[in-house]
Amino acid sequence: MQTSAMSSSIQRSLHDVRNMLWENPSSTVSDEMDARGEDALGGKYNGPADERSHPSHPRLIQAGVNVALPLMCRVRVHGQENLDTTGKKTLIVYDHPASIEPLVVKQLMGQQDVRFMAMKGVFVGPLTPLLVAAGAYPVDRAKPSSVAKGHGADLIHQGVAVAIAPSGGNERTPDQLGPYHMGAASNAVHGGADQVIGIVVDHHPANGSEATHREKAAGLLAAAGFATGATLLAVLGGPVGAGVAIGGAALAGAFIGAAAANKAVRPARSLEAPLRMGVKAVAGLVGAGAGAAAGVALLAAAPVLAPVLLVAAGTVAVLGMARGWQKRPVLEAVVCDPIPVQPVVKQYGEQEAIPQLTREMQNVMGPVKAELTGQPYDGPVLYEKRPRPA
Hints:
Elements (H helix, E strand, L loop, with lengths): L1 H21 L6 H8 L21 H15 L1 E5 L11 E5 L6 H9 L4 E6 L8 H6 L2 E4 L6 H12 L3 E4 L18 H8 L4 E10 L8 H24 L1 H27 L8 H29 L4 H21 L3 E6 L3 E2 L1 H32 L17
Parallel strand pairs: 1-7, 2-5, 2-6, 3-4, 3-5
Antiparallel strand pairs: 6-7, 6-8
């Protein structure tokens, strides 16, 4: 009866996850924030009160990015030599098909100071201090304040690089550039930028051939080490052995649950690759949690299974997780040729230079995106502000 109830609960959870992420896939948080002009993620805004950037602990933040990003995806960078900001006032623009792109920009910039314009709605919850420490500052896109509009230009004028996604949020069509807002170009023009550097990003699932021999060896060594240590602890017994047995049962259950959830959830092919991967990832987390609970419950019901769960299932789980890491998604990042800003300003004047520079960004980045994704680039499209609903 309990097993049936747990199975039904897991199915309901997965159903809720699918509905949450699949319902109206063309609708985005960015759209809702445009319509409401406030936080669309839920929760209270707790970002910088003055709407300015206040970076801190730069070495610690950079180290965290350098560790976290390779764990999440396999990054391949092209055109790194184009990211030369030495002695040049620089605006960095990047396309935004998912949510990981700011981390890519941060890693590419290394120890160079770079600030990020971000939607006000993301400054909620426990990650806000990390966003602030990383140099992010908020903008309410529906009702931008004079401070938010001017802060980026001020930073550029001071020689600090600013990174902005001209799409204003996640791209509605991740395989192609969407309409661009003119705010990024406005920051460049009014800040007296020397150059705009575009970074184009594309992610796709791994095909299994990317894993290196070193990664495969590391997975086998981790599994062998776990098996050896678990066997010794199982023989020794005692509180430590019991604790590790519980951990092994939870680990094995989590792996099996995550694998089962990933098999059960099949995102619609009509969804773009980043959203499909997001659906699978959330489903895997839900399955892992349920599986861990089931593994501990099974161990409590049948303690005699402890050595088997600890050694065999735990080892398989470690090996499976290593295999999953080896097949992590591939992220391609291309740093485009810099776009000189001042010649555009001299030719068109400040006011007309803003839309011209926005189109030039798309004309430089669009063909690169098309080459990465295989989708055509149909020319620049500027964002048209829609009226807010009453």
